[in-house]
Amino acid sequence: MKLSIEAIKQKTGDGYDFELEEDLGRVEFKGEDLVFVKPVKVSGRVENLGKGLFGVRGEISATIEGRCYRCLSKTQLEVRLDYSFKFSEKPEKFEDEDEVFIIEEDTLDLTTPVINEIILNLPSKILCSPDCRGLCPYCGADLNLGDCGCGKVNIDPRLRALEKLLKSDDHGE
Ligand SMILES: [Zn+2]
Ligand SMILES: [Zn+2]
Which protein residues have a CB closer than 5 Å to ligand 2 (ion)? Predict the structure, then answer.
């Protein structure tokens, strides 16, 4: 994911619009593999901000495959983000800026900043759907597929009392 600044490095304010697409494959995130199921798209504008600083801003869009935090099934997550990165041949000159990435051979490499940006903005818990019912804590069945029927689901205490009553009746007869 590279952009050349060759044509815009002479004059402050010069820039151009771009659209990049690259298959990033697999990235490790919190010990889990993140899989980009489609090429990641990055569009925007790169601009010479003057004094050796270059700015890139625009939109990232990606589709990621991860595991649902509740039911562990594989699930796809659409990511759409606005971003703004800064680059310089001498990043150490811009200590006041948030983070300045390095320019090598007149080239801005967006790959690392793009991956960082996606990871930073991922939800802490990926869910297959906001109302995923997860797994039964007793038998491990996927409750999205229906009740597991293992009988260990939380029974209302009033129902439990009734159940006992009915059982003792059975014994009485
Ligand atoms: Zn789920
Ligand atoms: Zn169960």
Answer: 136, 138-139, 148, 150
